[in-house]
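Lab intake sheet, docking and co-folding queue.

SAMPLE TYPE: protein with bound small molecule
LIGAND NAME: zinc ion
LIGAND FORMAT: SMILES
REQUESTED OUTPUT: full 3D complex as structure tokens
PRIORITY: normal
SUBMITTED BY: R.K., bench team

The fields below were copied directly from the construct record.
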Amino acid sequence: MNIERLLDGYRRFRATNFRAARELYERLAADGQSPRALIVTCCDSRVDPAMITDSGPGELFVIRNVANVVPPFTPDGKHHGTSAALEFGVMGLGIGDIIVLGHAQCGGVNALLRGEHAHASTVDFVGTWMALAADARERVIENAPADADRQLLLEYEVVKLSLDNLRSFPWIRERIDDGRVRLHGWHFGIAAGELTTLDADTGEFRLLV
Ligand SMILES: [Zn+2]
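RESULT FIELD (auto-filled):
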């Protein structure tokens, strides 16, 4: 039933949107992609970067993982999916704007906040993955006032941690220094559709609209 819905959706896409944008798709196929921005965001199904930025095919290079965590630069020969995609986007495609897009009610951040083995079904990988953001958790636990929304603060803090880790990649650092790459921190509030953006000067998230 779920799959039938998706296949019906594909048929509608093929008959309407694809038909309307056929030249664009043909051009993208012939010329290759040159996306405007690279977005690191969460796997969460409620956060669709293309939809909330009103972007079309070829415009966004999207990396999704649990809780939009960028790991630190770790060239150890292991399997780093997020780092590989960053390398391809930055070095291969020359993308200049990198956005880390966090979001409200993030399950990965919630697991981190409650302790790494809060979800019995996710002990194999999620806990280890979210441990990458343990420092962000410590900062929130230590500094947040008693009545603060710790979940939200930690969502913000994970975005900042990911931005810091982006700077640990030498080929990103180099491009930031010479002006070819710019970093941006965003947070999407699902219920109200609110986008807040990180002010680099104050370190605060501010409502865009
Ligand atoms: Zn999430």
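REVIEWER NOTE: The two ends are 39 Å apart (CA to CA).
SIGN-OFF: pending second check by T.M.
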